[in-house]
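Chain A, query sequence.
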Amino acid sequence: MSSSATAPTGAEVVPEGFRIERDLPVGRHPILAAFPGLDRLPTAKRLVTDAAARRRLFGATSVELVDQDLWMYVAPFEAPKNARRGWRPVVSPGADCIVVGANHLRTSSPLMLFMDIYHELCHILQRQGGADLWPPGVSYVKRWTEIEAYRFVITEARAIGVPDDYLREYLRVEWISDEEHRELLAEFGVPAH
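Chain A, predicted structure.
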């Protein structure tokens, strides 16, 4: 699951060619309907170097836009038994789908959406490789899947000049404690102040 925080002013740099279809209706759509050209960005080529594998990833992955107050997550094939109390995820048996809150798609900064969608694509690849995205008893900030996905998007963000103050806020997710936030900052070398 990826993060989200309010972006500091001035952090609106995104790779050339990153596009968002903000008026997409609620429902399930091909990922490239929500983010046209996402598969052709240099970031996509770094995520999946093999062109055929990249075509398969972007051709088979969908997004489900929901009218709920949430950011993004990979729809589980079945509801995780250890899900946070009150979380009733969209499930997508056997199909790769990223669930996106409609408000997030319509109003969040392009940079946040860029980082979030690639974070979730990392999770799709991890799950395709056999990873459990919701391992029981493992803290969010200790899951190798989260560390790997955040590391990928933070590396991409730094390459386009995103400042540490933006990254610090991006890593401040509502379901972790201040101490866990500091752990994430230390993991990625983002100064706490």
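The CA atoms of residues 119 and 150 lie 6 Å apart. The chain has a mean pLDDT of 89.
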